[in-house]
Design a protein that fits this description.
Layout lengths: L18 E12 L2 E12 L3 E5 L6 H8 L7 E6 L2 E2 L4 H7 L1 E3 L12 H7 L9 H6 L2 H21 L14 H13 L5 E5 L7 H16 L3 E5 L3 H7 L2 E6 L2 E6 L1 H5 L2 H8 L9 H19 L9
Parallel strand pairs: 3-8, 3-9, 6-7, 7-8
Antiparallel strand pairs: 1-2, 1-4, 4-5, 9-10
Helix pairs in contact: 3-5, 3-6, 5-6
């Protein structure tokens, strides 16, 4: 992945069915272990696609390959036809935003300030403008705050704008993370287990929020373990098992596939991985994540 597609404009994802994401042959190895193997996946604009699979299936690793946190060992990832750069901040600038399985907010910043962090890829003010704080800086700052408040209204957090993020209930922290991702004006939003730990009412509210995001012309790719949520939400669903795509199709097709049922019930099917193989891949992924978080200059904002 070498071509830099960084832009300063909001990506156009308003044409129904137009290709947004095209991942081809994505493979990710950690030493001798293969966490993701030859996975193809496309997402069209105005489409919600689900990615499911048992623990250790490689779903988050695949997400990390799409967003520049990992550089795939093999394969390529294209956004609106262009190969994505191997840097997460450039991927965000190109038009892909994401949330994380473990909430990553700036706990000691306010709700609005967290959203404003997500605006940095869409502002043009540089170092000197910030230091001199001239009219251009103040105009850009006011515009960012106005947009931030619009996004807080969209997710239902307007009245919490001045609260510290750490003081929000769990479900509202999830909403805030989505608002911060939307602040970068993405054409594609990746959600990593957005309903984890939520009660049924919060899950239903998240479902409605994702539909509202899609209605704004933003494509969505979502990882989730809540099968009812996924099958109610998604136009298509892809299933990963031990890093390989087992099946892909509409929710009815995936639900009726015997291999999917077997994978979730823990029953072996032909060429299914053993528990030891799954454990090895999970350990390799955890080690890679720990190495990334410990890298120089990496701020731990979880």
């Amino acid at each position: 992945m070498t071509t830099d597609t960084t832009t300063q404009n909001t990506p156009d994802a308003t044409t129904p069915g137009a290709p947004v994401l095209d991942a081809r042959g994505v493979t990710m190895r950690f030493g001798g272990l293969t966490a993701v193997r030859n996975v193809d996946l496309t997402v069209g604009s105005g489409e919600i696609v689900g990615l499911i699979g048992p623990n250790g299936a490689g779903k988050t690793t695949f997400f990390n390959c799409l967003t520049g946190l990992y550089i795939p060992t093999e394969g390529e990832v294209r956004y609106q036809g262009d190969i994505l750069p191997p840097k997460s901040f450039k991927v965000t600038a190109a038009g892909i935003a994401r949330t994380f399985q473990n909430i990553r907010l700036f706990a000691n910043m306010t709700v609005l300030e967290n959203v404003l962090v997500g605006r940095h890829t869409r502002t043009k003010e540089g170092l000197w403008s910030a230091l001199l704080r001239g009219p251009g800086f103040h105009k850009a700052e006011a515009a960012s705050r106005a947009r931030g408040m619009e996004l807080l209204e969209f997710v239902g957090l307007t009245d919490k704008a001045d609260h510290l993020a750490r003081n929000l209930p769990y479900g509202e922290q999830r909403k805030l993370e989505i608002a911060r991702a939307l602040a970068s004006e993405p054409g594609l939003l990746l959600l990593d287990e957005p309903t984890a730990g939520m009660n049924p009412q919060e899950t239903r509210a998240t479902e409605e929020l994702v539909f509202a995001i899609r209605d704004k012309g933003i494509a969505v790719l979502v990882i989730e373990h809540d099968m009812r949520f996924i099958f109610n939400l998604c136009d298509r669903v892809a299933v990963l098992v031990q890093g390989e795509k087992l099946v892909e199709g509409d929710p009815a097709t995936v639900q009726g596939d015997e291999r999917v049922v077997a994978a979730y019930l823990g029953e072996p099917f032909e060429n299914a991985p053993g528990a030891a193989e799954v454990a090895e891949v999970e350990a390799a992924e955890a080690h890679a994540d720990a190495t990334t978080d410990a890298a120089p200059g990496k701020e731990n904002d979880r």
